[in-house]
Fold NUDIX hydrolase.
Amino acid sequence: MTRSIPKKFEEITISTQPVFQGKIISLQVDTVKLPGGGEATREIVKHPGAVAVLALTPEDKILMVEQYRKPLERSQVEIPAGKLDAGEDPLAAAQRELQEETGYRCGKIRLLSSFYTSPGFADEIIHLYAAEELIPGTAQPDEDEFLNVEELTFDEAQEYIRDGRISDAKTIMAVYAWQIYRLTGSLPE
């Protein structure tokens, strides 16, 4: 996000202590000077960012992938998504993730929104795209990804949310954007 936001309650970093550097995330502890003059520590997860795709078929269905999510110790049904590679354009990443995870390419794609997942402790940003005019192909998931592609109707997606099979914010947000599209004929700007 590039908008200039006033720094009314800015915390000035005094020091940064790296704690962990992983393949996807890193963890650091910052000591900060508070606006009121005191000091505090902040545990911060650094993430390269990600993309997610609301992919709609001509039959008014949404493409989803089911996969096991170790932090939850269960399978989840989600929209296609993945992390950005270093220096990667989010639009190119969205097209790549759609094709890798579902096999589909798209004739039309546009950014719906970019949002932070957990700004209280992480800097991860997700760029949510809408893809239409889907062209089927062959999925090519990463070697450590085991996915099942599903096409859901709107009612099925709502049922999955109620049942907890869909419970992540990006996918719920995408389903609600789809609902707006179905009601108004256009996706949110």
